[in-house]
Amino acid sequence: MCCVCLCVSRNMATAFAKPSKQVRAKLDSFVVALNKKGIKLLALDFDKTLIDIHSGGMWEESTDKLVPHVRPCMKDLLETASHKGLYVAIVTYHTQGWLIKELLHKVLPKKVANKIYVQANTSDFVQRQRASSSGSSSDGSSTVGGINRSLIVNLNGKEAHIAAVVNDIYNDHSVAIRKEEIILMDDDINNVRIASSFGHYAFQVQQSVDYPTFESFETMLLL
Q: What is the pTM assigned to this prediction?
Protein backbone atom coordinates (compact mmCIF):
# COMPACT_ATOMS: atom_id res chain seq x y z
CA MET A 1 0.00 0.00 0.00
CA CYS A 2 1.26 3.47 -0.88
CA CYS A 3 2.74 5.36 2.06
CA VAL A 4 0.44 8.28 1.21
CA CYS A 5 -2.52 6.06 2.14
CA LEU A 6 -0.98 5.09 5.45
CA CYS A 7 -0.65 8.60 6.82
CA VAL A 8 -3.47 10.80 8.01
CA SER A 9 -1.25 13.61 9.22
CA ARG A 10 0.02 16.22 6.79
CA ASN A 11 3.52 15.47 8.01
CA MET A 12 4.35 12.04 6.59
CA ALA A 13 7.81 11.57 8.10
CA THR A 14 6.61 8.52 10.02
CA ALA A 15 5.70 6.77 6.76
CA PHE A 16 9.39 6.06 6.10
CA ALA A 17 10.90 2.93 7.54
CA LYS A 18 13.75 3.51 9.99
CA PRO A 19 17.14 2.18 8.80
CA SER A 20 19.10 -0.14 11.03
CA LYS A 21 21.62 1.39 13.42
CA GLN A 22 24.49 -0.08 11.41
CA VAL A 23 23.21 1.41 8.15
CA ARG A 24 22.36 4.74 9.78
CA ALA A 25 25.88 4.93 11.20
CA LYS A 26 27.25 5.39 7.67
CA LEU A 27 25.13 8.52 7.24
CA ASP A 28 26.03 9.88 10.68
CA SER A 29 29.73 9.34 10.00
CA PHE A 30 29.48 11.18 6.67
CA VAL A 31 27.81 14.22 8.27
CA VAL A 32 30.44 14.29 11.01
CA ALA A 33 33.08 14.25 8.26
CA LEU A 34 31.37 17.22 6.59
CA ASN A 35 31.62 19.15 9.84
CA LYS A 36 35.27 18.23 10.28
CA LYS A 37 35.99 19.33 6.71
CA GLY A 38 34.53 22.74 7.51
CA ILE A 39 31.44 22.39 5.35
CA LYS A 40 28.74 24.87 6.36
CA LEU A 41 26.25 24.52 3.48
CA LEU A 42 24.89 21.28 2.04
CA ALA A 43 23.20 22.03 -1.29
CA LEU A 44 21.10 19.19 -2.66
CA ASP A 45 19.55 18.87 -6.10
CA PHE A 46 15.87 17.91 -6.38
CA ASP A 47 15.13 15.80 -9.47
CA LYS A 48 16.79 12.35 -9.37
CA THR A 49 18.61 13.37 -6.20
CA LEU A 50 16.20 14.12 -3.37
CA ILE A 51 13.53 12.30 -5.37
CA ASP A 52 14.18 9.23 -7.51
CA ILE A 53 12.41 10.51 -10.65
CA HIS A 54 12.59 13.58 -12.87
CA SER A 55 9.57 15.78 -12.29
CA GLY A 56 9.85 17.53 -15.64
CA GLY A 57 10.42 20.91 -14.03
CA MET A 58 6.73 21.40 -13.25
CA TRP A 59 4.74 18.80 -11.33
CA GLU A 60 1.10 18.66 -12.42
CA GLU A 61 -0.17 16.16 -9.84
CA SER A 62 -0.60 16.44 -6.09
CA THR A 63 2.38 16.84 -3.77
CA ASP A 64 1.28 13.64 -2.02
CA LYS A 65 2.11 11.68 -5.17
CA LEU A 66 5.71 12.82 -4.89
CA VAL A 67 6.09 11.57 -1.32
CA PRO A 68 6.80 7.92 -2.29
CA HIS A 69 9.55 9.17 -4.62
CA VAL A 70 11.53 10.90 -1.86
CA ARG A 71 14.67 8.89 -1.21
CA PRO A 72 14.76 7.93 2.49
CA CYS A 73 18.54 8.22 2.60
CA MET A 74 18.42 11.77 1.24
CA LYS A 75 15.58 12.76 3.53
CA ASP A 76 17.65 11.50 6.47
CA LEU A 77 20.72 13.32 5.15
CA LEU A 78 18.82 16.62 5.19
CA GLU A 79 17.57 16.00 8.71
CA THR A 80 20.90 14.81 10.11
CA ALA A 81 22.86 17.66 8.52
CA SER A 82 20.40 20.19 9.94
CA HIS A 83 20.63 18.65 13.41
CA LYS A 84 24.45 18.77 13.19
CA GLY A 85 24.40 22.52 12.53
CA LEU A 86 24.85 22.66 8.77
CA TYR A 87 22.78 24.97 6.62
CA VAL A 88 20.80 22.93 4.12
CA ALA A 89 19.34 23.94 0.77
CA ILE A 90 17.56 22.48 -2.25
CA VAL A 91 18.95 24.03 -5.46
CA THR A 92 17.03 23.05 -8.58
CA TYR A 93 15.91 23.93 -12.09
CA HIS A 94 12.40 22.90 -11.02
CA THR A 95 10.08 25.91 -11.25
CA GLN A 96 7.75 25.26 -8.30
CA GLY A 97 9.62 26.24 -5.18
CA TRP A 98 6.39 26.21 -3.17
CA LEU A 99 5.79 22.56 -4.08
CA ILE A 100 9.25 21.52 -2.88
CA LYS A 101 8.70 23.35 0.41
CA GLU A 102 5.34 21.63 0.80
CA LEU A 103 6.95 18.26 0.09
CA LEU A 104 9.65 18.88 2.69
CA HIS A 105 6.98 19.59 5.29
CA LYS A 106 5.29 16.30 4.44
CA VAL A 107 8.39 14.14 4.92
CA LEU A 108 10.39 15.99 7.59
CA PRO A 109 9.69 17.33 11.07
CA LYS A 110 8.36 20.88 10.87
CA LYS A 111 11.36 22.40 12.67
CA VAL A 112 13.73 20.83 10.13
CA ALA A 113 11.63 21.63 7.07
CA ASN A 114 11.36 25.27 8.13
CA LYS A 115 15.15 25.61 8.18
CA ILE A 116 15.77 24.31 4.66
CA TYR A 117 16.35 26.90 1.95
CA VAL A 118 14.78 26.22 -1.44
CA GLN A 119 16.09 27.96 -4.55
CA ALA A 120 14.17 26.90 -7.64
CA ASN A 121 13.92 28.41 -11.11
CA THR A 122 10.99 30.57 -10.10
CA SER A 123 9.99 33.52 -12.29
CA ASP A 124 11.38 35.93 -9.67
CA PHE A 125 14.71 34.12 -9.60
CA VAL A 126 15.06 34.09 -13.40
CA GLN A 127 14.14 37.78 -13.54
CA ARG A 128 16.85 38.58 -11.00
CA GLN A 129 19.37 36.69 -13.10
CA ARG A 130 18.31 38.64 -16.17
CA ALA A 131 18.59 41.92 -14.27
CA SER A 132 22.17 41.09 -13.26
CA SER A 133 23.21 40.84 -16.90
CA SER A 134 24.86 43.79 -18.62
CA GLY A 135 23.65 42.84 -22.12
CA SER A 136 20.30 43.28 -23.80
CA SER A 137 18.93 41.77 -27.01
CA SER A 138 16.88 43.62 -29.61
CA ASP A 139 13.65 42.17 -28.25
CA GLY A 140 14.44 43.44 -24.78
CA SER A 141 15.45 40.11 -23.26
CA SER A 142 18.76 40.04 -21.44
CA THR A 143 21.72 38.34 -23.10
CA VAL A 144 25.27 37.40 -22.19
CA GLY A 145 27.60 36.74 -25.08
CA GLY A 146 24.61 36.50 -27.40
CA ILE A 147 22.90 33.90 -25.18
CA ASN A 148 19.50 34.57 -23.63
CA ARG A 149 20.03 35.28 -19.91
CA SER A 150 17.19 32.93 -18.91
CA LEU A 151 19.46 30.04 -19.94
CA ILE A 152 22.45 31.17 -17.90
CA VAL A 153 21.30 29.42 -14.72
CA ASN A 154 21.59 26.16 -16.64
CA LEU A 155 24.90 26.99 -18.34
CA ASN A 156 26.47 27.88 -14.98
CA GLY A 157 25.17 24.78 -13.28
CA LYS A 158 23.79 25.53 -9.83
CA GLU A 159 26.09 28.47 -9.09
CA ALA A 160 23.40 31.16 -9.33
CA HIS A 161 21.17 29.08 -7.05
CA ILE A 162 23.95 28.53 -4.52
CA ALA A 163 24.88 32.23 -4.58
CA ALA A 164 21.27 33.16 -3.85
CA VAL A 165 21.15 30.77 -0.90
CA VAL A 166 24.47 32.04 0.47
CA ASN A 167 23.09 35.59 0.25
CA ASP A 168 19.90 34.56 2.06
CA ILE A 169 21.91 32.87 4.82
CA TYR A 170 23.97 36.01 5.30
CA ASN A 171 20.84 38.17 5.45
CA ASP A 172 19.14 35.81 7.90
CA HIS A 173 22.06 34.87 10.15
CA SER A 174 24.94 37.29 9.37
CA VAL A 175 27.04 34.24 8.44
CA ALA A 176 29.36 34.54 5.46
CA ILE A 177 29.97 31.20 3.75
CA ARG A 178 33.07 30.75 1.62
CA LYS A 179 33.21 28.66 -1.55
CA GLU A 180 35.23 25.89 0.09
CA GLU A 181 32.59 25.57 2.82
CA ILE A 182 29.94 24.42 0.33
CA ILE A 183 29.14 20.94 -0.96
CA LEU A 184 26.78 20.19 -3.85
CA MET A 185 25.18 16.80 -4.38
CA ASP A 186 23.59 16.47 -7.82
CA ASP A 187 22.82 13.71 -10.32
CA ASP A 188 24.05 15.84 -13.25
CA ILE A 189 27.80 15.39 -13.72
CA ASN A 190 28.04 18.76 -15.51
CA ASN A 191 26.66 20.56 -12.46
CA VAL A 192 29.11 18.64 -10.29
CA ARG A 193 32.06 19.62 -12.51
CA ILE A 194 31.01 23.26 -12.59
CA ALA A 195 30.64 23.33 -8.81
CA SER A 196 34.14 21.85 -8.45
CA SER A 197 35.54 24.48 -10.83
CA PHE A 198 34.05 27.16 -8.57
CA GLY A 199 35.92 25.72 -5.59
CA HIS A 200 33.08 23.77 -3.94
CA TYR A 201 33.07 20.15 -2.92
CA ALA A 202 30.71 18.23 -5.18
CA PHE A 203 29.52 14.63 -5.52
CA GLN A 204 27.48 13.02 -8.26
CA VAL A 205 24.40 11.16 -7.04
CA GLN A 206 23.77 7.91 -8.91
CA GLN A 207 20.34 6.32 -9.28
CA SER A 208 21.45 3.53 -6.94
CA VAL A 209 22.33 5.92 -4.07
CA ASP A 210 21.53 4.57 -0.61
CA TYR A 211 22.90 4.68 2.93
CA PRO A 212 26.07 2.65 2.11
CA THR A 213 26.89 5.27 -0.55
CA PHE A 214 27.63 7.78 2.20
CA GLU A 215 30.62 5.68 3.19
CA SER A 216 32.05 6.15 -0.32
CA PHE A 217 31.27 9.87 -0.20
CA GLU A 218 33.11 10.15 3.09
CA THR A 219 36.16 8.40 1.66
CA MET A 220 36.24 10.79 -1.32
CA LEU A 221 35.75 13.78 0.96
CA LEU A 222 38.77 12.89 3.08
CA LEU A 223 41.14 12.19 0.18
A: 0.84
